Amino acid sequence: MLLEAIYHVPRDKWAYAYDTSTIHLRVRTQKNNVECVVAMTGDKYDWERTYYEITMEKAASDGMFDYWECAVSPQYKRLSYGFRFHNDNETIYLTDTGLSHDYPYPPGGYFEFPYIHEVDVFKVPDWAKEAVFYQIMPERYCNGDTSNDPEGTEPWGGQPKYDNFFGGDLQGVMNHLDDLTELGINAIYFTPLFLSPSNHKYDIVDYKQVDPHFGTNELFKQLVDQCHERGIRVMLDAVFNHCSDQFPPFQDVVKHGADSKYKDWFHVNEFPVAVNDGIPTYDTFGFFANMPKFNTANPEVKKYLLEVAEYWIKEIHVDGWRLDVANEIDHDFWRDFRKVVKGANPEAYIVGEVWSDSLIWLMGDEFDSVMNYPFADKVLAFFNGAMDGRTFADNMASLIMRYPQQTNEVVFNMLCSHDTQRLLNRVGNDIRRMKLPVVFLFTYIGTPCIFYGDEIGLTGGDDPDCRKCMEWDPDKQQTELYDFYKLMIQLRRKHKALREGRFRFLKADPNDPCIIYERVDDKVHFIIWMNNTDQPRTLTHPLVKNDWYDALSQEKVDTEDGIMNINLDAYGYRILCRSLQ
C-alpha cells in the first residue's frame, strides 16, 4: 500500500456529526490501491461490549485517490475508532498515533469523537433540500407599475447596458407568481432590492428601504406573504462587504475626513478620500470607487449590518440570505451573523458567494451553503466536450468530498447567473446540448437554481448582456424548453431519491463522453443515461431486475438477459426508475 496516500483527521469533513445520533467517518487511500477498509469502533470506557466493525463504502474516487465512508451510531454519543486497510498481501492499521502493521490494542491511541453535543451539530434547513430556486433580478423581470419607473426608462426588451433601466419592479414579480407556481418553483432568490443608484443594486444607500423604483417595504411584505401562501420561500441578497459611495456615513467621511465619526466604518488608507490614477485612497470592492468596503470588524458597523439582517427576517419574514462577496468579510462577523439570523428564524437559509473550496465557512458556525460555481464550471466543461466521462466523474467526486453530507444536500447549484453568460450561450445555443446539464442539475445532489428566463430560452453573453429583460411574448418563448423544465422540476420535487438519495456513476470511461449514473434511496432507484455526442449511441449496463420504466413517459423498459440496452439520439438522455417497495 502507498502509505503516504492514506489520510484522516478526526475533524472537519473527515469526522463529523451528521445528526444527534450519527457520526460520519471518511478516510482517503491511493486510487485502486486498497481493496477493503474497515472502521473499528467502540466506546473507550466500555470497548469490549460496544466494539463494532463497519466495512466502509468506497463513496467516491478522483484522479488520485479513493474516498471511503461510513456512518456510525455510537451507543453513548462518543466514539473511539481506528481503520484497518486490506489488499491482497498486506494489512495496515491507522489510529491517532499513526500507521502500523501491528494491531493497535484499543482504545488507547485511537481517534476520538469525544461527544455529540446537539448544540455543535451542523444543522441545515430541511426545506432547502426540497427547494427549486428561481433567481430574479427585479429590474429585468417585469415592469408591473410604470408609475415608479426611473427617469429615462427604456422600452422593455432593449439592449442591456451597465447603466440603463427598463422599469422592472416588485409588482411585476407579483403579477407572475402564478406562472412561477405553474413552473414548479418553490423558492425565489432576489438580487438586491434596496435603495441604490444602479440597475443591479449592489451599491446600496439604505439597507432598510426597498428601492422606490421597485416599490415599498409594505409592497415587498405583501409579496413575501403571497409567496408564502403559495409555498414559495424568499431569499434576499446581502451586500455587506461594501456599500454605495452615496451611503450617508461614507458621505460624512468624504465631507469631514479624519474628523468624521464614521471614519472607522471603512478602510481609509489616506485622507482626504479621493481617487488617484484610478486607485481609491480607501479599500473598495475590486477597484470600484463607488463601492467602498465596510470595516466589518468595527463594532458599530457590525451592529448596523446585523440589525439589517435581523430586520428583514423578523419584520418581513424572508427565509434566508445570499451573502455577496462573502469570502472578503471576516469570519468573526459571519459567526455573529449566523447567531443573529438563526436566532430570528432557525430555519433561515444562509448561502455564501464563494467561488472556490469553501469548507472553512461550512463547519456549522457560519454558512449553510455556498453558490457552487465549481459545479457549474465542471458540468459545463464536460457537456461542452472538454473532458471525457472518467475525468468528469473524478471531478464530481472531488466536489462531493469537499464538504460534509448535510452541506452537499443543500449546496446552491446553478448553471449560470447574473455574473456569467446565459446557459444557452454557454452550450453554443444548442437546446439539445442545453438539456443535458439541466437534467444533471435536477438529478444531482444539492439545491438547484434557475436563472430567470433560462426556461424559455433567453440568451445573453457576458455581463451586462446576461441581464436581459424577461421575454413575456409567448411567440418568442421556447415553449418546448419550458415544458422540459417543468417536467424536470416535477420529477425532482416528487422523488426524495433525487434530492437526498445516494449518487454514484455506473459508467464513466476514459475517452468516452457518455455517462450512466444512479440516484437511489429506500423507495426508488433511478438510473440516468446520457449521450454527450453528436451521433446516436446505444449504451449498455447490466441490470438484473426487469421492472424498469421511463420516469418521464412511464413506458416500460425491458432488459435482455440481464443487460439493459438504451438507444439514445445525439445529445439524448433517458431517466429510468423502478420502485423498491
From TrEMBL:
Superkingdom assignment: Bacteria
Alphabetized GO MF terms: hydrolase activity, hydrolyzing O-glycosyl compounds
Keywords noted in UniProt: Glycosidase, Hydrolase
Domain named Glycosyl hydrolase family 13 catalytic: residues: 135-492
Entries under SUPFAM superfamilies matching the protein: (Trans)glycosidases (SSF51445), Glycosyl hydrolase domain (SSF51011)
Example GO BP: carbohydrate metabolic process
Pfam families: Alpha-amylase (PF00128), Alpha-amylase_N (PF02903), Malt_amylase_C (PF16657)
The keyword Phosphoprotein is assigned to this record: no
InterPro entries membership: GH (IPR017853), GH13_cat_dom (IPR006047), Glyco_hydro_13_lg-like_dom (IPR004185), Glyco_hydro_b (IPR013780), Ig-like_fold (IPR013783), Malt_amylase-like_C (IPR032091), O16G_dom_2 (IPR045857)
PANTHER family: ALPHA-AMYLASE FAMILY MEMBER, MALTODEXTRIN GLUCOSIDASE
Family, similarity comment: Belongs to the glycosyl hydrolase 13 family.
UniProt-recorded name of the protein: Alpha-glycosidase
